[in-house]
Amino acid sequence: MSDLVIDGVSVTHGSTLAIHDVSVRIDSGDLVAVLGPSGCGKTTLLLAIAGLLPIGAGSIRIGERELSRPGRTVPAEKRGIGWVPQEASLFPHLSVADNIGFAVPRGRGGAMGRATRIAELAELVGLGDLTGRAPNQLSGGQAQRVALARALAPRPELLLLDEPFAALDTQLRVGLRREVAELLRAQGTTSLLVTHDQEEALTLADKVAVLRDGRLEQFGTPEQIYQHPASDWVASFVGDVVELDGLWRGGRVTCALGAVEATAVGFAPADGDRVRLMLRPEWIVPRPELLAHAAAGADARVAAISYAGHDAMLSCDVVGGPTVRMRMAAVELPHVGDEVRLAVQRPGLAFPATPLPAQI
User: Fold this and answer.
1) Where's the ABC transporter domain (predicted)?
2) Which CATH architecture has domain 241-352?
3) What digits encode the pLDDT tens for the residues 65-88?
C-alpha cells in the first residue's frame, strides 16, 4: 500500500469551481472521512480521485504513481481503486457470489482460484452462508456488504466509499459502519469515506477532512477537529456550540459566565477587544456546591431539560444574562427550576467578534 497525495487540486464544473486548491496526504492504511454539508464538493473530490472527472490544477498520486494532472488522467479501470456507492447497485439477475465474482480478476488461479476468492470475500463481510441468494432476498445492510466485498475483490490500493450507510435505518447504520471500519483496518485498506454525518466521521475515522464550498477548512484527527477547530465555521458545523459575547483580557474572556480562560483562534486580540467565545455544551458544568462561594462562574436556574438517555441537554437561564445550554451525563440530573452555578471546565475558543450592523 502507498500514501494518497492530493496536491493543489482544483476541479471545475462548467463555469463553477467545485474544488479549489485542495491539498492533503492520506497515509497508507488510514480511514479518512471527508466531511461537509451538501454541495461542498465531497463527491466531486471522490470522482476526481477515481478518475471519473478531470482536474484543472494540481495532481493526484498514489505513492510515486501519478493518476491525474491537467491534461492527463489514468483511466478509472487502471487506477487500482475500489468504489462503494450510496446504493449497493447490485446486478439483480446475479447471485451474491456472482456479484462478488464480477470484480474478481480473471486468469488468477483459474475457476478454483476464483471460487476460493469469492468464498473468502463472502466470509470476510459476514455473508458466507448467503452466497446463493439473489439481491432481492437481501436486507439493505446485506446488500451493502456485497457491494463492499465486490469493491475489495481486486485488492484495490484505495477504497472510496460515497455515503454508503446513508440509505440505511439508524440502528442498522450504526452497527454496520462500525463493522466496516473494523474490517477495513484489519485488511490495512486505505479508505476515503464521504459523509455529511459528523458523528459518523468522528467515531469511525483516523483523520477527518472538512470541506466547505470546495475548500479544505481543516484536516486532522477527530479530536483535533472537535476540540481544536481551525475556524468558527468548523466549530459550529462539527458539533454543538454555545456562543457568548465578551471582552478579551490576558488570555481570558469576560462574559456572562465570568472570566473564562480561552485560546484565540486565527487572530491576536488585544486587551479590551470584543470577541466571541465558543464553548462545547459539555465543557460547561453545574456546580451547585459553589453557590455559597465567590468562585468564578455564574448563578443560573435550570429552565428546561432535553433527555436523551445516555446524556441530557440543559437550558439554563443565567442570572442577569442569556440562556446557555450545557450537556451532562444523565445521572443525578438537576430538576427544572433548580438553582445551579455554571462553571467552564476547560479553555474556550475565542474568535473575532461579529461585526456590528452598519449604521443607516
Assistant:
1) 4-238
2) Beta Barrel (2.40)
3) 999 999 899 999 899 899 988 887
